[in-house]
TrEMBL record:
Residues 225-449 form the Enolase C-terminal domain. InterPro entries: Enolase-like_C_sf, Enolase-like_N, Enolase_C-like. SUPFAM superfamilies: Enolase C-terminal domain-like (SSF51604), Enolase N-terminal domain-like (SSF54826). This is Enolase C-terminal domain-containing protein. It comes from the Bacteria. It comes from candidate division TA06 bacterium ADurb.Bin417. It holds the Pfam family MR_MLE_C.
Amino acid sequence: MDNPRDIRVTGVRTWLEHYDFRTPLKFGGVVMYKTTILNAEIQVETRDGRRGAGLGSMILGNTWAWPSRVYGFQETMSLMEELGGRLASLIGASRDFGHPVELAAGLEESWLEAAAELGREKRLAEPIPKLAVLVAASPFDAALHDAYGKVHGLNVYNAYGPEFMNRDLAAYLTGEFAGEYLDRYTLRQPKEKMPLYHLIGALDPLAEADIKARLNDGYPETLPEWINRDGLTHLKIKLNGSDLDWDVNRVLAIDRTCREVQAARGVEQWYYSADFNERCPNVRYLLDFLARVKAGSAGAFERIQYIEQPTSRHLKEDRANKMHEAARVKPVVIDEALVDFEHLQLAMEMGYSGVALKTCKGHTQALLMAAAALKYGLFLCVQDLTLVGESYLHSIGLGARVPKIAAVEGNGRQYCPVANTEGLKKWPEAFTVKQGSIVTANLVRPGLGH
């Protein structure tokens, strides 16, 4: 029988926001100076005619999602913006009823076809990557979940049980999940607070001597200033992946700085994550890196909580780089390579031991990958895309509702704080880092919680 809780789309509205960074961010060998946000509002109705609307928002992170060797930053950004418009039309034309997970999963094939059609029309020299398609689609996916919760007057994380979802997880994953629903892998109330990872980009100054000219814009500029202001306990380090000496020395320099500042604060425990953005040529590079960091500072080595996507995202073409040996040393998480369940399965075969959840790949996918990771006992974290405003709240809300998440990220406050102005007014406890953590207990409103 038809589920009376099902919704269908009745209208879609989108708009873009553009922001310059206060300071450049370098990762994966490239530098970012600005960002564009795609916002989507989706109107829905239930089978019995009740109406509501939901909001989704996401950074169009083209530098990360589409690292093209053919097209420049503005070209890939323009194509992702155009793709977003086409996806809006596709979703607006859909009249299927269903649960948001069902609707988003059903629409994914048409999203990919829309990207392929755009590529053919533009005679692109390379296809639009699946990751870029997921990023462009993610605001619409989020808006569906937000609208579903709002039209029913409940937080959507409490709408993932069998009375709401029409299919169990076996329909989206494997038969191992028969009879299971997302409520099994999410929390009914958000965690009270979450540790927040602070990003140290490759260009970010560690000390005063590293600054050529101060910005004097009211925000911290050196690592000690950030640690002292926010009480940081989790630090994400962007590394080169093609210069072992630089990578090792960067971690050791950061650790020396942290030891001095944390000692003055009376803090004895803090953590690092090492992010290579897939630039390591092979797993041997990673093993050498870990060995040399350990030799240089046993404390720095112990503080490394996990490693992010050290080698190529193209797992099927990079099967030789198995992570089993490295994963026995530290958790190694799949990030750029995680575009669907098939790649999660392949990553596990190749020795990856963790999953980085990102709402920029879609709220639906994040929930499904979280369920799989929890069932398989993988290390879990929620990662950022320099998120700001609504997209940041969405991301930390996910982290607060998924068990065993190590920490969340929020580096938009570092590089693009102007885009957080309204969010800071409405949700100061979520946007303000104190003692290294943010408060997430209040993200309980209907829809996605904020």
